[in-house]
Design goal:
Length: 366
């Protein structure tokens, strides 16, 4: 394994460069959309689109957009203007998903600020509008998400690239969104049924996270560069296994990290009743008293800090935290093995980025 400091530094620098490109492009796009929306559709439509652009503009690491550009470059693509537009579309689809996800999870915060539906509910209250502020907030947030999603589809349809490649990319993205919707459904169902199987948990890890966050953007970038099915198939094992490890580490940080790291309360996953690798292992390996306590706390919207601390203690004492870290290590090892087998297909810079990103995943929880 490489020197950890060098690995982290190189990966983060390149990711930061991708993020800067994407953020600058999104900022210019947002200015144009705000102006044209107000001119063509009026102030109510502007309220809707502002809610969407607010979430889009909060950024994050831009990992999905970055992987879109990386997939393109490592497959020999040279049109940077075009691929940055495609990366914008991928990030726009992500903003759409975040708005929907926040509504379904009843989340109050997203990346250090209020979620779209909460901000819109506040607008309703401030302006003393008729009816329910909560219903108004959710309704307009859903419209804003749909507007953003279809705007992203239009961007993809108008990319300056061969028509056949555009059709392939649009097909890939729509298939991914179907898979993601099924993964999200299992995530919701896992919170409300009595027995959650390992298969049900794996479906969420694969369908909600791995396909959507890693496989889809890499495939989109690669196809836009003209990569064939053999090439896209060759990256699949890496993307799926890295994506699963990403979700496991994200779940760890979600509970054991700080609000500054995640942009939301560390108690949220427990309050929402998320059946994560952490939670399932603890439920299956705790004493009767601790298991009953966990069952009562998972989905408890009134969880107190003292109860949350006991939940964390159980996750540590049962070995759930260690088990999650071991699982993440396993998936990263499989991902790196699969990458090494296909190393001759990609540019050296692309391989280095993917290798360093996978290894960086493990450092997030140490």
């Amino acid at each position: 394994m490489k020197n950890s400091t060098k690995t982290s530094s190189g990966f983060l620098v390149q990711l930061s460069e991708y993020k800067k490109l994407i953020d600058e492009d999104i900022n210019q796009y947002a200015k144009q959309v705000r102006r044209s929306t107000l001119q063509q559709y009026g102030s109510s439509a502007r309220l809707e689109i502002d809610a969407y652009l607010d979430i889009l503009g909060r950024g994050g690491k831009r990992i999905r957009g970055a992987l879109t550009i990386l997939g393109y470059e490592m497959s020999g693509g040279k049109d940077m203007e075009m691929i940055v537009q495609a990366a914008r579309a991928v990030e726009m689809i992500h903003a759409y998903i975040l708005i929907i996800d926040d509504i379904q999870d009843r989340s109050l915060m997203r990346r250090g600020d209020k979620t779209a539906h909460i901000k819109l509910a506040d607008y309703h209250l401030k302006n003393e509008l008729a009816g329910s502020s909560d219903h108004f907030g959710i309704s307009i947030a859903l419209d804003s998400a749909l507007s953003g999603m279809h705007a992203a589809q239009m961007i993809l349809a108008n990319l300056n690239v061969d028509e056949e490649l555009k059709l392939k990319v649009i097909s890939i993205i729509n298939l991914t969104m179907t898979v993601t919707a099924h993964g999200q459904t299992y995530d919701i169902m896992n919170e409300v049924v009595a027995d959650v199987s390992q298969e049900d948990l794996d479906r969420v890890l694969r369908w909600k996270t791995a396909h959507y966050t890693f496989l889809n953007p890499l495939h989109v970038g690669m196809v836009l560069a003209g990569a064939d099915c053999q090439a896209t198939d060759a990256i699949t094992d890496y993307a799926i296994n890295t994506g699963i490890a990403f979700q496991i580490t994200d779940d760890i940080i979600g509970v054991f990290g700080s609000e500054q790291e995640t942009g939301k309360s560390p108690m949220d996953d427990i309050k929402e009743g998320k059946r994560t690798v952490l939670a399932m292992y603890a439920l299956n390996n705790s004493s009767s008293a601790d298991k009953n306590f966990l069952i009562q706390m998972l989905g408890n919207a009134n969880l107190t800090p003292a109860e949350f601390q006991r939940v964390k203690d159980i996750l540590v004492d049962t070995g759930a935290l260690d088990n999650a870290r071991i699982s993440a290590n396993h998936y990263i090892s499989v991902a790196l093995e699969s990458l090494q087998k296909e190393i001759q297909r990609w540019t050296p810079n692309g391989v280095d980025f993917l290798r360093d990103m996978a290894e960086f995943m493990l450092k997030r929880t140490n």
